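Pilot study result, target chain (339 residues):
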Amino acid sequence: MLDKINKLLAEVSHIKAASADEIEAIRIKYLSKKGEISELMNDFRNVASDQKREVGMKLNELKEKAQARINELKEALENNNTVSDDIDLTRTAYPIPLGTRHPLSIVKKEICDIFRRLGFSIAEGPEVEDDWHVFSALNFADDHPARDMQDTFFISHDPQVLLRTHTSSVQTRVMEKTQPPIRIICPGRVYRNEAISYRAHCFFHQVEALYIDKNVSFADLRQVLLYFAKEMFGADTKIRLRPSYFPFTEPSAEMDISCNICGGKGCPFCKHTGWVEILGCGMVHPNVLDNCGIDSKEYTGYALGMGIERITNLKYRVKDLRYFSENDKRFLEQFESAY
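Predicted structure:
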């Protein structure tokens, strides 16, 4: 029996297994009720009395070594399962290739940060809107071209449900539910039925601002516009306001900034005028205030709106609007160093 025990001891120490099934087969072979070690235990009663002590010690050693070896195999298998074969554990953790923010996200954050410093808070609303919040509440006439299918995406055949054409719809929702003072900015995506080209797209992004309180004047609007232009494009930036028309503001204006490429001297980008248009603005029309439940005789306010793509073009000189929605890595990787 001692010879058989010694033979099994040598065998057990060299056991190998590559799977849980193989380990279980080894356990059954040696440690089950009908296994080889169990059979030796049963035969122990036939050992001569003067050999029982030596044989018993060897038998216990064999059982302990077999159990220990099976435990080692199980532990090794579990460790292998937690580490993927394609991971190089000797590889340094750096450098790790980092992602990048989208240029529109970078510029939107910068615009929002500027207005936050002026006390504006962010307001958001749905992209699928109704006629009232997009047009009627904003003083659009019933026959205004913006209500035509050529300009606006309508949902199904219901003329009352549409994709918002500007984030002014967020302003009307806030004005309906909030009494002045109101000081908000409304960033978001908008939709218009336009042919896609290098200078136009069927969807784009806007940031609009609204301030309503007692005794708000056009001078307040101009100071905010000047502050924004200098913060966004540099301290030497100049602005000019040109009379314009929007149904929801009166008086209305469009704002130009001195060309940040040529410094106002004239170049192909600004068509040699030295000026580049960036946004529309004006004093909130009294009809809009009344439509939203705000007393236009007590309160006044200003509103302004700009296209984020337009500001991004000026800041990064992107010549084709389609780049912003094509997800071309070669384009996006140019903004890796941007915050």
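One observation from the pilot: The longest strand covers residues 203-213. A full batch analysis is planned for the follow-on phase.
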